[in-house]
């Protein structure tokens, strides 16, 4: 028994000395001092030792345990100390280095302009409605009184995915989908991304944003359209803003008009912003064509309405005096931080 205990002691001390990590040390402790360890197995054999020898053997087992535990604790403390020193060396903080700047994001000019437009029309009782960007030809053209031979359907202006599916060229399809629901009256705006096959330059992009509005109710007149858009212009550009309507042609409205606003930079006197004219074209509008109402199953003899559409980028360019539309898409933080 004495020789066995001496062998266990020498074996344990040798393994502790050779170990190079705290994990291995713990494994050694379990192997020799654990519930199923070698020293525990010796204690289980005490029943075979005579009563006279048990005290002596018990003392020898305790001495062996204490010797192993003592060496184990010394090795454990030394390894923990070295590990801590290594961490302190590698995780040291250089207080002379400049602090890391916490970069906070900023709203895009388009987002700021859209929030302003939505605030104005929601305040007038309109709801914001969205629709798909990939649209059927029917909703993008035919239901808006644009026949198959209309120039707007030429492939040089429209991105065709298939014969009957296009990337929408306006957000007007959202209006058609809303009219088809038959829930009247309607007071809505439809903001969203649209696509046209335009060359990229200071004022054009193949992908841009529109905000279109629609009102359908009984006894709606052009006077309601003028009053609504005049109020919109005053809220957006200032209370002194005046509006002017010029006759125009749109297939889906009749009569139709382009709306100008007095230059908010010079108050209508003429400047670089308005090219000396005192007026700036801002949007297109008109009374909803009776044919458009009929195709959406709305009786044009009982209901009338008006519609309008404005380019969101145009509002942002004018309101923040940006001279190149491409700046809105280049993601230059130096530019975006100005707004």
Automatic annotation (TrEMBL):
Q: Transmembrane: is it a keyword of this entry?
A: no
Domain named Aminoacyl-transfer RNA synthetases class-II family profile: which ranges? 117-338
Name the Gene Ontology biological process terms: phenylalanyl-tRNA aminoacylation
Which cofactor(s) does the record list? Mg(2+)
List the catalytic activities from the record. tRNA(Phe) + L-phenylalanine + ATP = L-phenylalanyl-tRNA(Phe) + AMP + diphosphate + H(+)
Q: Which GO terms describe its molecular function?
A: ATP binding; catalytic activity, acting on a protein; magnesium ion binding; phenylalanine-tRNA ligase activity; transferase activity; tRNA binding
- Keyword Ligase part of the UniProt annotation: yes
**What GO CC terms are in its UniProt record?**
cytoplasm
Give the matching PANTHER family.
Answer: PHENYLALANINE--TRNA LIGASE, MITOCHONDRIAL (PTHR11538:SF41), PHENYLALANYL-TRNA SYNTHETASE (PTHR11538)
- From the Swiss-Prot or TrEMBL record, give the protein name: Phenylalanine--tRNA ligase alpha subunit
* Encoding gene, per UniProt annotation: pheS
């Amino acid at each position: 028994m004495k020789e066995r205990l001496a062998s266990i002691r020498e074996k344990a001390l040798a393994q502790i000395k050779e170990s190079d990590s705290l994990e291995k040390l713990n494994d050694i402790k379990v192997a020799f001092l654990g519930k199923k360890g070698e020293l525990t197995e010796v204690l289980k054999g005490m029943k075979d030792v005579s009563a006279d020898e048990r005290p002596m053997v018990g003392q020898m087992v305790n001495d062996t345990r204490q010797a192993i535990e003592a060496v184990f604790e010394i090795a454990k403390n030394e390894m923990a100390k070295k590990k801590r020193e290594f961490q302190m060396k590698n995780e040291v903080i250089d207080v002379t280095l400049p602090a890391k700047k916490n970069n906070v994001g900023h709203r895009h000019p388009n987002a700021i302009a859209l929030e302003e437009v939505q605030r104005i029309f929601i305040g007038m009782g309109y709801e914001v409605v969205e629709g798909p960007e990939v649209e059927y030809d029917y909703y993008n053209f035919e239901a808006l009184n644009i026949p198959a031979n209309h120039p707007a359907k030429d492939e040089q202006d429209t991105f065709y995915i298939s014969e009957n599916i296009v990337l929408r060229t306006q957000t007007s399809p959202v209006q058609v989908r809303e009219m088809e629901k038959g829930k009247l009256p309607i007071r809505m705006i439809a903001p969203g991304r649209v696509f046209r096959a335009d060359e990229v330059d200071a004022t054009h992009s193949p992908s841009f944003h529109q905000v279109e509005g629609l009102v359908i109710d009984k006894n709606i007149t052009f006077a309601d359209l003028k009053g609504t858009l005049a109020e919109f212009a005053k809220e957006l550009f200032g209370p002194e803003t005046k509006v002017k309507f010029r006759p125009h042609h749109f297939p889906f409205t009749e009569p139709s008009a382009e709306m100008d606003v007095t230059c908010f930079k010079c108050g209508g006197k003429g400047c670089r912003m308005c090219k000396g004219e005192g007026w700036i074209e801002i949007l297109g509008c008109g009374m909803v064509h009776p044919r458009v109402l009929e195709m959406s199953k709305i009786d044009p003899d009982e209901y009338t309405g008006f519609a309008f559409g404005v380019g969101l980028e145009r509002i942002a360019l004018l309101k923040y005096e940006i001279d190149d539309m491409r700046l809105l898409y280049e993601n230059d933080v130096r530019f975006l931080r100005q707004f």
